[in-house]
Amino acid sequence: MGRPPEYERMLNSLRAFIRLIGRSSDGADVIELDGVVGSVCPSVPDRSLPNSVIYESQEALIDALPELWRRYDEAGVQAWTVWTPADDSEAIAALDEAGHKLDADPTAMTIGLATLGEPPDIDYRTGDHLIPVIGSINDCAYPVEDDPFTRMMSRHPPGVTSNYVADVDGEPAACLQILPVDGDALVLLVATVPDARGRGLASRLMLRALCDAREDGCDLSTLQATKLGEPVYARMGYESLGPIQMWEKRP
Which domains are seen in the chain, by residue range? Predict the structure, then answer.
């Protein structure tokens, strides 16, 4: 039994996201192999999200693994991950044998944008000038050393994503990006600063952004949800497409 078409569209959008990361920071690059694409982000060498790989077939990934190892090692990247559908048993076995470990298994989710109602009332801003703000909000929401989101977005190209920030008392409080890919509004970098949580701010901002994406011609939206985020997105109307695993290589 094949995967639903929405899952395949999500994978296609994820490829576009990885290509975007590979040109969004100092020294970044995109690995283009036969049926495999990866992002190299030397400015964040110890975080696997900006150093990600996705593939079109299990055979393509297995053939590409030695070259991927070489390219990441050559760039000084210490942690990188492969996004893997959970039913790709041959790819998973090869990654496990090569020393990758299952780091996370977010849920792929989708919503048809025709089901959305009117956009909610929310104080928000949009524009390319907000890209650094989105990085800083994510670094505040998911605090780790050295502000990885700000660094991975330091040269984020303009005109590619739709960038949204909601304010509370005049200060940036929640954010997200929409990356449109062949009619799919891929949701990225959703975050809320700790002091503004519990108000439904990110959900309302996201609905506002999805309504805009619908107006721009997108017919659906996909995302990858963490265990904490999945019930939030489900309440918004997103439906599960099944898991997608992240197999990480780390020293």
Answer: 5-106+245-249 (3.40.630), 111-242 (3.40.630.30)
pTM: 0.96
DSSP for 13-45 reads: HHHHHHHHHTTSSTT-EEEEETTEEEEE-TTST
Helix ranges (DSSP H) in the chain: 5-21, 58-74, 89-97, 131-141, 148-152, 201-215, 229-236
Tokens of 10: 């999500």
Query: Would you say 21 and 54 are in contact if contact means Cβ atoms under 8 Å apart?
Result: no
Quick: pLDDT tens for 40-91.
999 999 999 999 999 999 999 999 999 999 999 999 999 999 999 999 999 9
CA–CA gap between residue 8 and residue 223 (Å, rounded): 12
Distance CA 138, CA 174 (A): 9
28/21 Cα distance (integer angstroms): 8
pLDDT of residue 143: 81
Cα(244)–Cα(116) distance, integer angstroms: 25
In DSSP terms, which residues pair with 167 in a beta bridge? 172
Cα of 25 vs its chain's centroid, Å: 16
Residues 91/246, Cβ–Cβ less than 8 Å: no
In this structure, how many other beta carbons lie within 10 angstroms of the beta carbon of residue 159? 6
Q: Which residues pair with 90 in a beta bridge?
A: none
Alpha carbon distance 88, 247 (integer Å) = 12
